[in-house]
Amino acid sequence: DATAMTQHAQALVLNCGTLSPDSVEAMLAAGQAANENKIPVILDPVAVGTTPFRTEMILSILHKVKCTVIRGNSSEMGFLAGKGERPRGVDAAPDDDIDSAELDRERSQLAIELAKKYSTVSAVTGQRDYVSDGKRVARIDNGHPLLPAVTGTGCMATSVIAAWTAAAEDPFLAALGALAAYGVAAEIAANKANGPGTFQAHLFDAVYNLNAEQLKDKLKISVMEV
Q1: What is the reported pTM?
Q2: Helix (H) or strand (E) holding 13
């Protein structure tokens, strides 16, 4: 069923939040069907490195499926890049609240290295987001501190990337635009929220209602050639 359903999709998200042998088998079948039909595949390697089973399954997916975009927090992406970082939570990394030039360089380089290693677009999300295709790297300063306070916002970001990738020819620009727009939506939602609970509801509404006029003056993006 996964193979047949994938053929009707414009993009495929492989979210590794809840893994079992059966779900991995289905993801592999769907991912390979997407590759055969030139459908973009977006991988969310949730908590890779935390357990042997989870790590083995996610690495198996990466080996057997060509992923168009990989999105994760810095600890997840650092593990995939071979940095030896010990993965932490699914939506927040241990030093996401650190604002420094050194951290900025590290995250940019991480995005570049991972993109080259897997011949993909890598999206490292956190306090700032970094996107690279190995030739270009972009930093996105949109977003809000309430995002990591709500479980599932990282998974939602992955789905937004998939929607943009389905509609764009360049997956680098798609991932960049998706995360910037998602960050703007988070800023709009935070202005209306009283805390994490109401923020979640307002975030859904902000993503749904987002338009070009709202984005025009709010985007905070810098792009560099590698």
Answers
A1: 0.94
A2: strand 12-15
Domains annotated on the chain, with CATH: 2-225 (3.40.1190.20)
For the segment 86-129, what is each residue's pLDDT rounded down to a tens digit?
A: 565 555 555 555 567 888 899 999 999 999 999 999 999 999 99
List the structure tokens of 78.
């650092």
3-state helix, strand, coil in the chain (%, to 5): 50, 15, 35
Full DSSP string of 108-122? HHHHHHHHHHHTSEE
Gap between the Cα atoms of 166 and 206, Å rounded: 21
CB of 57 within 8 A of CB of 24? yes
Tokens of 72: 């994760």
Work out the pLDDT band at 25, boundaries 50, 70, 90: very high
Q: What is the pLDDT of residue 102?
A: 86
